């Protein structure tokens, strides 16, 4: 596929705005232009003990109290910062742990130095011929050199001299791949006139483009007076596929930039209709635009966006949070006041003093989730790849004829939490501390744990069995289905201990709503071990008792958001909050 390279204007002055194109440079394949860099964050985290069982409330509270002594020295240090120590899966916690255990430098290879210096000014045909001769080992020098320019964000005029050289050698013909890569640089540097010229060439020579070229042209046209032609390109994409979230984002941003809010909102609704999760910058654009809008109609649209964040457990970034705050405070006559704050372990907002929503499921939600997990994870999941129907039935009968448990422990998982310690001793320490609180404990183990060796001492295991109920599965069995089954059947008060985040089992659930309920239940029931002193105290991580989601009471909003300077992993939740309330 080729195009005649004619009519490209001379290199215009660079725009001074920041680079907008978010595509990964340096790839020769055109598919790079559609690669979605914005992953959906699956939220997973560790939690500590909190029970609602009346018969064991006192014992549970004693256990939690023993975990609190490590935090007392920090209390009262600042009214602007929560006195509670951050939980293990707070945003940035995993990053800090990785920095405490840096990888070994012994096998790290030194960085490869780039000995080739790209031209910084346009070259003529003779100069390009000489450079190509110097790199004659490159099978396709023209595509290779412009790919290097993309990596380094070279100026458009240098790239244009490559195209002029190629065109001179090929009777004015420039290959499609080369033209698209040149378009990439034009869009990156916001060279509007060049973008339009490439657009005209492509439109004249080809009735259909591949998706990468459509994406670049849409992004390049949205800030020009021909922005509506980007909408026509979006319609062309729809004829063969569902446009990407980036395509919709660009068109929405263009419509808002040109003050056509109806087109922008219709595109947003269309995007949601395809079950596509919008980019956060798309949602931010509506709030930025709303600062100049008056009336309840647009205000209701923005509150719908906030509820969308809530229902999908999405978190705005810091810049987005500032846009939300600015919009609320700009609404005439509403007297909203916002502040950035944190929430105490008790669930009380340090900004306004109100208590945010509880993490615990309602009885209806619990029964709904229990049924779904039983059907889709335990009965209908893939557990039989690691166990047998007979063993699962044996375990179900075991649970049926035992009283409800307060704590269910993945014995092998917990025993391996401290690699330098003897595994049977770790398990004994954990079970002993729980048993002292008069808690009914179930330990799920493997049959090999009963064999005497340096890691598993028989006398340790005998002590464990005197203090807890035990179920020993086959050595090849998967523990998680047993753990989930026992915990759910024991009731909403029952907690479980494992460092497994159970993402595979969460993925077995049929829809996003059920997966969010599972994660919410997990937050209120999964107990983490922070530290262990050999032969004595085990410190348990405190459990969050409040839900980290966007929430409102009508006269207030509490919005958790991502701190720009903290890297949050997919199984972590933000610790920063935007508190908004009406001034009376």
From TrEMBL:
Q: What is its EC number?
A: 3.1.26.5
Task: List this protein's GO terms for biological process.
Answer: mitochondrial tRNA 5'-end processing; tRNA 5'-leader removal
* GO CC term, one of those recorded: mitochondrial matrix
Required cofactors, per record? Answer: Mn(2+); Mg(2+)
Report any Pfam family annotated for this entry: PRORP
Compartments where located = Mitochondrion
Locate the PRORP domain: which residues?
A: 343-579
Catalytic activity, reaction form: Endonucleolytic cleavage of RNA, removing 5'-extranucleotides from tRNA precursor
One MF annotation (Gene Ontology) recorded for this entry: metal ion binding
Keyword terms: Hydrolase, Magnesium, Manganese, Metal-binding, Mitochondrion, Nuclease, Transit peptide, tRNA processing, Zinc
Q: Which family does it belong to?
A: Belongs to the PPR family. P subfamily.
Describe the subunit structure.
Answer: Catalytic component of mitochondrial ribonuclease P, a complex composed of TRMT10C/MRPP1, HSD17B10/MRPP2 and PRORP/MRPP3.
Report what the protein is called.
Answer: Mitochondrial ribonuclease P catalytic subunit
Organism phylogeny: Eukaryota, Metazoa, Chordata, Craniata, Vertebrata
């Amino acid at each position: 596929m080729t195009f005649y390279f004619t009519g490209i204007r001379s290199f215009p002055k660079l725009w001074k705005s920041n680079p907008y194109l978010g595509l990964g440079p340096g790839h020769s394949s055109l598919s790079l232009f559609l690669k979605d860099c914005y992953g959906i964050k699956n939220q997973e985290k560790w939690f500590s003990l909190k029970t609602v069982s009346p018969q064991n409330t006192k014992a549970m509270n004693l256990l939690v109290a023993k975990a609190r002594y490590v935090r007392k020295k920090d209390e009262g240090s600042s009214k602007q910062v929560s006195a509670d120590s951050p939980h293990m899966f707070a945003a940035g916690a995993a990053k800090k742990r990785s920095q405490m255990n840096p990888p070994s430098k012994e096998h790290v290879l030194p960085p490869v130095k780039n000995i080739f210096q790209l031209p910084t000014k346009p070259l003529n045909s003779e100069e390009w011929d000489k450079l190509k001769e110097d790199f004659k080992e490159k099978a396709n020098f023209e595509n290779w050199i412009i790919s290097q320019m993309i990596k380094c964000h070279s100026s458009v005029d240098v790239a244009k001299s490559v195209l002029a050289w190629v065109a001179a050698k090929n009777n004015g013909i420039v290959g499609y791949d080369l033209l698209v890569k040149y378009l990439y640089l034009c869009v990156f540097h916001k060279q509007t006139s060049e973008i339009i010229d490439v657009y005209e060439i492509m439109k004249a020579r080809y009735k259909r483009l591949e998706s990468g070229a459509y994406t670049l042209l849409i992004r390049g046209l949205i800030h020009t007076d021909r922005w509506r032609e980007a909408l026509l390109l979006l319609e062309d994409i729809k004829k063969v596929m569902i446009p990407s979230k980036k395509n919709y984002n660009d068109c929405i941003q263009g419509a808002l930039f040109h003050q056509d809010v109806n087109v922008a909102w219709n595109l947003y609704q269309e995007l949601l209709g395809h079950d596509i999760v919008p980019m956060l910058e798309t949602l931010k654009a509506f709030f930025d635009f709303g600062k100049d809008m008056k009336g309840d109609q647009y205000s209701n649209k923005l509150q719908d966006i906030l509820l969308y964040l809530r229902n999908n457990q999405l978190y705005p970034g810091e810049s987005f949070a500032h846009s939300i705050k600015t919009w609320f405070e700009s609404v005439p006559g509403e007297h909203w006041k916002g502040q950035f704050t944190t929430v105490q372990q008790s669930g009380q907002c340090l900004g306004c003093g109100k208590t945010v929503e509880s993490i615990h499921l309602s009885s209806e939600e619990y029964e709904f989730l229990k049924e779904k997990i039983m059907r889709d994870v335990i009965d209908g999941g893939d557990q039989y790849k690691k166990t047998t129907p007979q063993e699962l039935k044996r375990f179900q009968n075991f649970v049926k004829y035992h009283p409800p448990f307060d704590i269910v422990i993945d014995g092998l998982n917990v025993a391996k939490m401290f690699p330098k310690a003897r595994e049977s001793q770790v398990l004994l320490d954990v079970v002993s501390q729980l048993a002292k609180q008069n808690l009914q404990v179930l330990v799920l183990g493997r049959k090999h744990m009963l064999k005497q060796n340096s890691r598993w001492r028989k006398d340790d295991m005998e002590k464990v069995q005197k203090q807890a109920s035990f179920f020993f599965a086959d050595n090849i069995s998967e523990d998680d289905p047993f753990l989930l089954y026992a915990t759910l059947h024991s009731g909403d008060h029952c907690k479980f201990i494992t460092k497994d985040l159970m993402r595979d089992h969460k993925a077995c659930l049929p829809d996003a709503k059920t997966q969010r309920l599972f994660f919410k239940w997990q937050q209120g029931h999964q107990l983490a071990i922070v530290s262990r002193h050999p032969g004595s105290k085990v410190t348990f991580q405190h459990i969050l008792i409040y839900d980290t989601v966007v929430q409102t009471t009508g006269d207030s909003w509490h919005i958790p958001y991502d701190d720009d300077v903290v890297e949050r992993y997919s199984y972590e939740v933000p610790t920063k909050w935007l508190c908004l309330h009406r001034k009376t």
